[in-house]
Amino acid sequence: MDLSPRLSDDAPAETEPADVTADGPTATRRRHLATTATAGLFAAVAGCGAIGSGGPADTEPSERTDETDDESNPVGDLPLFDAHAHVIPTAARGQDSLSADELVDWMDANGVDRAAVMAFDSPEGYPVQAPSWWVLEQVAAYPDRLVPFCTIDPRTMTYGEEAVDVFERYVDSGAQGFGELKVGMPIDDGRLEPLYELCAEHGLPIVFHTDRQFLTDEVGLPRLEEVLASYPEVDFVAHATGWWAHVAADVEPSDLGGRPEGPIESRGRVWELLSTYDNVYGDLSTRAGWNALTRDAEHGRALLETHHEQLVFGSDYLYPGQEVPLLEAFDRFDLERDAWANVRHRNLEGLLR
Q: Is residue 33 part of a domain?
């Protein structure tokens, strides 16, 4: 049976406690950040903000300066690696399609050096599917700028080895992460377990979308915590309203699909899970992430200061002309340069296979 997903314009539109050992969860690739801080993926693209959008760079990159807290080195000079971007084959939701060329044009205009490009293989994930095989083809023209991710719809795992073969073909073709995982089932659904195990086996981080419709959970995120504890060798990058609503403690079920406003009276489960598990990260993309930082600026700055080793910059760029308010964060929040380096690129570099 051919498991390669087909493009579809019929999919519905998106709507916006486990045991831990005494030593804490098993450590993941985050421990390697100390040795990959200024090397690795950005060795070939330092200074690529000046690269044109007509194709991959063919010039030698300039060396970046030391990423320590130095007023002579503004934060904007640090590499910027977008953890969550897209290419979209056809128009959807009244917005134009987005090609790899257009994505790179936007990156050049906004100082983004590299971007992880998500796939949409599940039909409910987006009105138009962007299958993994297609994403891999589209980003191939920009190997120094665009990093492909892949997905497999968990319902196809019933095909056993054939589905596993499809997954492994994606990895062999260059997929460096798994995402965007966005399916209409609970985050601890048994059908997801084979995917979590495959990502553990191949060392792929998972970017997942959780809200009231996709990868659902209850207030307090007990299902997510069970997954984090059950798969300590997998890095999970949490995205969307179901996660970011929990930046505060007072969460109502309706908040899992929205963006709660107002000051934060007490810190929520986001803080606790980031402190307890080193295999969970926060994807700051979309207005949900921006809202988590700005609804209470004092707590937003504290979140960045406290958990900068587990937060990643992301745009969730889906269509030409989309606004990305998170780009304002680097001027809005006064954070040490070294901490910004983690958020801007080090953390994501450390996660990729």
A: no
Q: Looking at the domain assignment, is residue 147 inside a domain?
A: yes
In a domain, 42, yes or no: no
Instruction: Give the Cα separation of 80 and 78 in Å (integer).
Output: 6
In a domain, 19, yes or no: no
Please say whether the beta carbons of 133 and 170 come within 8 A.
yes
Cα 167 → chain centroid: 19
Q: Is 171 helix (H, G, I), strand (E, B) or coil?
A: helix
CA distances from 224 to 113, 197, 268, 270, 291 (A): 31, 16, 14, 11, 21
Q: Which three-class secondary structure state does DSSP give residue 330?
A: helix
Number of domains in the chain: 1
Alpha carbon of 324 to those of 76, 107, 237: distances in Å?
16, 11, 19
8 A C-beta contact, residue 135 and residue 49: no
- We report the CATH number of the domain holding residue 234 as 3.20.20.140
Please identify which residue in the block is written with the tokens 């539109």: 13
> Each residue of 260-288: pLDDT tens digit?
999 999 999 999 999 999 999 999 999 99
Structure tokens at 48: 């690529």
- Tens of pLDDT, residue by residue over 19-56, are 333 344 344 444 344 444 434 444 333 333 333 333 44
* Domain coverage including residue 305: 77-351
Q: How far apart are CA 210 and CA 186, in angstroms?
A: 9
Instruction: Give pLDDT tens digits for 3-23.
Output: 443 333 333 333 343 333 334
DSSP per-residue letters across 11-29: SPPP-------TT-SPP-G
